Amino acid sequence: WCWSDVGATLAVDEKRVRDAIAMEDNSSICVVNEFEELGFMDLRSSAANSVRWSSRSRLMKGKMPEEPCYPKLALHGGQLFSSMNDCISVFCGPEWVLTSRLRRSYGGSICDFSIGGDRLFALHSEENVFDIWETPTPPII
């Protein structure tokens, strides 16, 4: 099984996928483009060949920093984490609503992050700068 958006009607630069993760609980794949726009593919559907882009998740568009780090995704405890530039956005619920943002004022762009237990670790583009946060608790819905 493979997927490609070759021949799609949208401009390729507008929807270039930068990271993807499997979401086993709902048999789907989540992708993110360079503007932190989230896209979802439901693998149970016959329309699994198309990405449903969530425009409500778009947090920035336009200027990229001098040292861009591509967005990354992680799924933990029913929450979706997405890094972009110098912050990590947290989405929750069936519609993946933005519930919180984590940001530091120094260190440059976040180039990688990882979640271990109840801690989120973020590596910045500046040498030897990383952050450790307690992972946000999912909101009561």
Topology as H/E string? EEEEEEEEEEE
The rounded distance between the terminal residues' Cα atoms is 36 Å
The percent range for strand residues is 35-45%
- Helix proportion range: under 10%
Low-pLDDT stretches: none
Number of strands: 11
Give the averaged pLDDT, no decimals: 79
> How many domains, as an integer?
1
| SSE-based structural type | mainly beta
Task: Tell me the overall shape.
Answer: globular
CATH architecture: 7 Propeller
The number of helical segments is 0
Spatial arrangement of strands, main beta sheet: 1-2-3-4
CATH class, named: Mainly Beta
Protein name: BTB/POZ domain-containing protein
InterPro entries: Beta_prop_At2g24240
